[in-house]
Amino acid sequence: MKYFIILFSLILLNSCHQKQKSSYQSLTTVDTNKGPVNDGKLLMEQKCYSCHNSSTDHKERIASPMVAIKSHYLNDSTTKEQFANAIWNFVQQPSQEKSKMKGAIRRFGLMPYQSFEENEIRAIANYMYDYKVDEPEWFKEHLKDGKGKMNYHNDGIKVGAINRDQKKTPTEKGMEYALNTKKELGKNLMGTIQKKGTLEAVLFCNARAYPLTDSMATAQNARIRRVSDKARNPQNAANDKELKVIEQFKKAVANGEDYLPITKLENGRHVFYYPIITNSMCLQCHGSPNKTINPEVIATIRNLYPNDKAMGYDINEVRGIWAIDFDNTNAK
């Protein structure tokens, strides 16, 4: 998971290297609730903020904030095309050689390979090139203290926060619930892996994953579950209806097809489904025994979950789905 975090870290690591100063200074403020601005900002929040958000305290971070990525990868002569190309080039095959943030790799590790859509990565890169990104209050002091070997770069169009109070479609609302919960679980799990290792992460999942998911469900007034056809915890076993949804997503991913969330209205409530896709980080606990999962971790998993079925996965496979149901409040 340590590597998962850097996934997002370096996905944008290469991003921030491209933007001309004159274009930054000539623009002021835009409405973020429509058009490509909204698309790029939302994608950045969805794909990157689990690890790279600006609100996390410096000592508790599991990856660099977006402004650090931008400052490392941007100079006055970088073009928008170069910027987007650098990001996509790195994400296709992450490596230390391609990274411009050696300190981040030393602290957080190199991000693992994960399957991303090129058009989404380029939308994120274009947004970062043209607009200011959120930055932590401590960031400039961090630079003054000489802790970061970079020049500060965060010019661009200033954008306001996306209007969270406007009515959302059921699909948008379901995705919001899934991403918020993923962020909370990921932050805690990745922090555990970084500080204590994979074995402790298994123990964390056993003791804390359910309570954290339940607390997020309560906070968002929804029922949030992660279910699988090959469950580790029997409580996460998919029912017949969910098994059909999992199979549908599996076929789409295996065939390289685009897929969208599935949202239905059942008994007056919206039901939302979205796949959980594996990356190389996941294989530390869900890959092949004695190949990507070390013996000590295997022994712990088998002790905690005698009926475990959640091994044998490879990268970019459907490990399960988010199954979330909620009422019509704040949905179109």
Indicate the topology.
Layout: H1 2-13, H2 21-25, E1 29-30, H3 35-52, H4 66-73, H5 80-92, H6 102-108, H7 118-130, H8 139-144, E2 158-159, H9 170-196, H10 198-220, E3 223-227, H11 240-254, E4 262-266, E5 269-277, H12 283-286, H13 295-304, E6 318-326
Parallel strand pairs: 1-2
Antiparallel strand pairs: 3-6, 4-5, 5-6
Helix pairs in contact: 1-3, 1-4, 1-5, 3-7, 3-9, 5-7, 9-10, 10-13
Domain Cytochrome c: 35-132
Pfam families: Tll0287-like
Organism: Nonlabens agnitus
Keywords, separated by commas or semicolons:
332 residues, four-stranded antiparallel beta sheet, 13 helices, heme binding, metal ion binding, metal-binding, Cyt_c-like_dom
Q: Order of strands in the sheet with the most strands?
A: 3-6-5-4
What is the domain tally?
Answer: 2
State the total count of DSSP E strands.
6
Q: Name the average pLDDT.
A: 83
Helix-strand pattern, N to C? HHEHHHHHHEHHEHEEHHE
Radius of gyration: 20 Å
Ranges where pLDDT stays below 50 over 5 or more residues in a row are 1-35
Strand content: 5-15%
| Count of DSSP H/I helices | 13
Largest sheet, strands/sense/barrel = 4 strands, antiparallel
Tell me roughly what share of residues is in helical segments.
40-55%
Shape designation = globular
> How far do the termini sit from each other?
36 Å
